[in-house]
Amino acid sequence: MPIGTAIRYQFGKERSDELTIVNNKTPAVVHNAAVFRWRIVVEISKAMHRNADWVSTETSVADIAKLLKKNDIGAVPVQENDKLVGIITDRDLVLRVTAEGRDPEKTSAKEVMSQNVIYCETHQTVEDAIHLMDQKKIRRLPVLDEKKQVVGMLSVGDISHSVSRELVGELMHAVSDHHS
């Protein structure tokens, strides 16, 4: 069975049996419960969008908006001294700049970025990222390497190319839950 075959997972529930498919090898089945679940191990480094752009804390939000539009992305990490210090999403621009009547040319990333950024690391699995997105109700994660450097971004869209439609639907429902 190849990696990427149907995945069955229910958010917020305990795991029962799992079928794990790693590196296209023979699946290992664990018999602990009556219901089987499928778990595919896909590393974040294989699913993420590589070479993600980032901005400095002094970048104007006008320039950030142009970058988001040019690259058709919804978020950009903010770095200072080669460290991740924030993230700005298209929603941040609307709520923290436009809605507050700020001048985009004179407003810097530092003034409107979200701090205490939730991120994932390249060695983790997509399943780890899904759990994190579910728990924190977020749709995008900066990806850091072992040196804590930003090496990519992982979005629900990226995940949708790595896992089943069913799991993506469950993830979308979970991260959108706070809007209902």
| Main sheet attributes: strand count, strand direction, barrel closure | 4 strands, mixed
Radius of gyration: 18 Å
Determine the mean pLDDT: 78
Assign the structural class, choosing from mainly alpha, mainly beta, alpha/beta, alpha+beta, or little secondary structure. alpha/beta
What do we call the CATH homologous superfamily of the largest domain? CBS-domain
State the CATH topology of the largest domain.
Answer: CBS-domain
State the helix count.
Answer: 7
Strand tally is 10
**Residue runs with pLDDT of under 50 for 5 or more positions:** 1-38
Please estimate the helix content.
25-40%
What's the architecture of the largest domain in CATH terms?
Roll
Query: Could you tell me how far the N terminus lies from the C terminus, measured between alpha carbons in angstroms?
Result: 38 Å
